[in-house]
Write a structure and sequence with these properties.
4 helices
Length: 110
């Protein structure tokens, strides 16, 4: 189950990246490099922007929902859970610093 959801999450994230990069910015951005200008010719400039905006919203919602589903339902927190040092509440002892070693100055011969 976890593997299927993880693969689906990767596919959704890649689609989300592609859709975001296809959106035209004020300087036309990367939309021209990925064929966004041709999509504007196919749908019309305004309809392409509406489609890409809605696709971005839907993919972002699906991405977040999948993240929550994976975290809540498939990752069992009780199995093999290891508490951190902070959760254990045990104070850690730090060894005292060693005093500096006094070395006699080296005398140079004349």
């Amino acid at each position: 189950m976890f593997i299927i959801l993880a693969i689906l999450e990767i596919i959704v994230s890649l689609l989300l990246i592609i859709v975001v990069l296809m959106q035209a910015s004020k300087g036309s951005g990367l939309a021209g490099a990925f064929g966004g200008s041709q999509m504007g010719a196919m749908f019309g400039a305004r309809r392409a922007a509406d489609f890409l905006g809605k696709a971005t919203t839907v993919l972002a919602v699906v991405f977040i929902v999948l993240c929550l589903v994976i975290n809540i339902f498939t990752l069992d927190s009780s199995a093999g859970a290891v508490e951190s040092i902070i959760q254990q509440g045990q104070p850690t002892s730090v060894p005292a610093p060693a005093p500096p070693q006094a070395t006699p100055p080296v005398q140079q011969g004349k």
